[in-house]
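Re: beginner question about structure tokens

> Can someone show what the tokenized structure looks like for a real chain? I only ever see the sequence side.

Sure, here's an example I had lying around. Input first:
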Amino acid sequence: MTSVPSSGPWPPPRADPSQPAGRSWPGPDLDALTGLRSGKPSFYPEYRVSAVRLRRVILALERISAALVRTMEGSEALVRAVVDAAADHLSADWVAFALVDGRLKDASPRHLVLGPDGGEWTNLDLVPATVRAHVEKVRRGDDTGEHGSDHDRDTARTHLHVPVRLDGRTVGGFVAWTPRDREVDDTDHSVLRILAGQTASALQNCALLERSEKLYARTARQAEDLRARNAELQRTQEQLGAARQREVLDNERHRIARELHDSVTQYALSAGMHIELVRGELDEPRLLEHLDTAKDLTKRAVEQLRSAIYALSHHESADQDLPAMLRQLTTVHMPDELRIDVRIGGEPVRLPAEQEQSLFRIAGEALFNTAMHADASRASIRLAYRPGAVRLTVSDDGKGRPEEIRRSLRASALSPSGEHRGLVNMQTRAVEMGGTVTFRRARMGGLQVQVDVPVGGTDGGRTSRGSAQGDARSDERGVAS
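And the corresponding structure tokens:
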């Protein structure tokens, strides 16, 4: 602090002769301390009082700012923070905050009272009667103006009330009781008015935020519900499409079955009857041997026709899975001398209907070839579920050879006669599923047909481009093993 000069007249000469006599000039020390000039001898004490008030106001505004930024925590945290800020600023013994009934309906709590120890008094019946009366008046909307009293008879303290207004309406109010030695001045009124106005805006923002969050949550639930309904609708449409497709296929199967029964089967039976009649007229052993062979072939043809008619007329139910379909396949008019067993490995999973149908048809074609051409006594079907893939194998103990099957498959691609269409169909179905078909020697001694299909499908074009080379390599490994 600058000291008083030790030399020179004091008070210094008047700089302004117009000043009345008898008034002393403040001097350079006061100028150095305050940075201000004044002709009043009491200026410095007033300045100190103003500086203290200013610091108190700045601290109060800081507390108010810290309280109002808690909007994101909800209205309850905000109300507690602003009431604490008011109590700290006024050094109040009692502070009450209340909202008018019916205003700011989403805000809570509706009232809050802090006592001399800073604790919250939730039960209004235990607070002083004056405090309780003011809270009830605010809640009824009766206490709408700013006012105060130098002395409250019931609490023996200074009383101050500041309304909380929003959009020109009184929505609540602050009521504070300060000790006798705590003077409430204009700056305190200004601070509380600022606090009240900002509190009203913050409470409205809280309400808007809570409504927005509720609306967002409801919208999110509706969006999730719509997504689930849309997914269900898509599944229903897919099921309807599959049902229409099955209906068309069923009608076509029944038509083919009727045609086979009414034409091809009758012709085959008639051929067998004529062969039997011719046998009765001939005694030549060599001719009878040929006729016996023709009769046996005709009998087998009729059996296979009946098997095909049965399979077409009694199509598997949509509720059946692939293992059940394969087990049913072994009971459909197979030759009595061919024993077939079915084994399932891994955890069965439901595949798309098209894949299950294709695998079922491949297994049926392989068994048909075994029964017709392999001269086998035993056959086995293995269905293995693996992570990301399914493997179907049909093996027998017949006379089929993998190299002959591969030659027949290559020849069928160049032959216009339609021979070996069953082999071509098996390969085509496997490629359409994104898989491969392999012909190799079975451990039983005959032929093994192996089909590997990825679960979920892959790019059929990419798979088909490499299927021929892959088949050849796999077949060679199979034969060598």
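Each token stands for a local structural state, so reading them left to right follows the chain. The beta strands are 94-99, 111-114, 147-152, 157-166, 169-178, 339-345, 378-386, 389-396, 436-441, 447-454.
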